[in-house]
Write a structure and sequence with these properties.
By secondary structure, this protein is an alpha+beta fold. The chain is 28% helix and 26% strand. It has 4 helices and 5 strands.
Length: 132
């Protein structure tokens, strides 16, 4: 699957974001080695730390359905109800969760900004010297 197609799945998933506290909506789309895609959105909670990021929602959905091998994740985020402007990079906790399942040398993190520009990083670039 092309990066842009995966990003479009993240754009769709972002519409489901439950983010009444931050007003920041994130969507993610996770590509498995078998080409299946799991999507996720951020899900907030009145007790703020109970919030789950979009990336972890997608990864946990996949793992809970028996998938543990992944090629890439696309992420888009920005103020709810508006088109995203900036690239939305994954938080540290999500990078650590990616490191549990994904090969840092090959797993791709794909971001798109409001201008439609796509940037791609390897997990090893965003989480150097990760703990495993
Ligand atoms: N968020 C994500 O879903 N993914 C990230 O990588 C960064 C942050 C969410 C968490 C929270 O609901 C909102 O964005 C603001 O931090």
């Amino acid at each position: 699957m092309e990066n842009r197609e995966l990003v479009m799945e993240a754009v769709k998933a972002r519409k489901q974001a439950y983010c009444p506290y931050s007003g920041f909506a994130v969507g993610a789309a996770l590509l498995c080695v078998d080409d299946r895609v799991f999507t996720g959105c951020n899900i907030e909670n009145a007790a703020y730390p109970a919030t789950n990021c979009a990336e972890r929602t997608a990864i946990f959905k996949a793992v809970s359905e028996g998938k543990t091998e992944f090629r890439a994740i696309a992420i888009v985020g920005g103020p709810k109800g508006k088109e995203p402007e900036n690239f939305c990079a994954p938080c540290g906790v999500c990078r650590q969760v990616m490191a549990e399942f994904c090969d840092p040398e090959t797993f791709r993190i794909v971001l798109m900004n409001g201008a439609g520009e796509i940037r791609e990083y390897l997990l090893k670039e965003l989480l150097p010297l990760g703990f495993t």
